[in-house]
Amino acid sequence: MKDIIKKMNFNFYYLLIAFLIVLSSCRTSDKEKIIIFHAGSLSVPFYHISDEFKKENPGMDIFIEQSGSLAAARKITDLGKNCDILALADHLIIDNIMYPDYAGWSYVFASNEMIIAYNEKSKYANEINQDNWHEILLKDGVRIGRSEPNLDPCGYRTLFVFMLAEKLYNKNGLADRLIEKEKTVIRPKEVDLIALLETGNIDYLMIYKSVAIQHNLKIVNLPDEINLSNPEFESFYNSVSTIVDGATQGEKLEITGSSILYGFCIPFNCQNYDAAIKMALFIINPEKGGRILKENGMMPVNFSDEKYKDNIPENLSETLTHTGG
User: What angle do CA 270, 275, 278 make, to 5 degrees?
Assistant: First the structure.
């Protein structure tokens, strides 16, 4: 009989613990929640943005998923996942994939540039420079890393850099040689390759300047004509294009070269609109999100395309410094 009572007490103890855990989780769920899907290159700044935002809004829980920007958009368009803020490394993905069925507007909030990252262990590390980089990358034994163009803007922007370099240097076939180089490692997003560079499994990495700065990598700066950072060369950037996977399985989308501009939107399936607006305003505030972006090697920008003027929320449109394409 004592054993039975002891067993009953034992079971009651664990039932009580289970009840307290459920009760605790219910209390946690009472907090406001924001779900953010963002580009891999935004991982570091958005970690700090989320941390600072929660200090100002202690009743808020922020759930973040990082991926390549195309993959992030397809979580909504293809998989039907709910999202409150979608922040991508290419605002044109919102134009081409999200608008008008999944979102009504896009807001540009940052810019970046393409560079080549390396470290002291990289082959020819003491020789590579802005003029000979393509010759170094094509050398036997040199291993380069780039991200998947069908998942990540950095991937198709790398192709644009190679295509534009062929035009700039007047070297026929250069782009194909770089794209088809045998010793190339491709991963879903550019930040997946950083560990391979640090461990010496690749020698050079095509990546955004901000990410290289955040990870203290050595940098080869590229000419403005090919680094996709300077709007003065927009017509030259527009002279190249590539085909990538579209919004849903089986669809294809042509992407044209353009200046690197990051954009965000609040998708139609947003579950917490007021909190999403509050986060959006935090991101574009020059003393808050803008400061954090600068500290992490990005340049805050602030505009929305003219076609969104009737759709963009009023409290966001009031912050615009100008409207443009």
Answer: 120
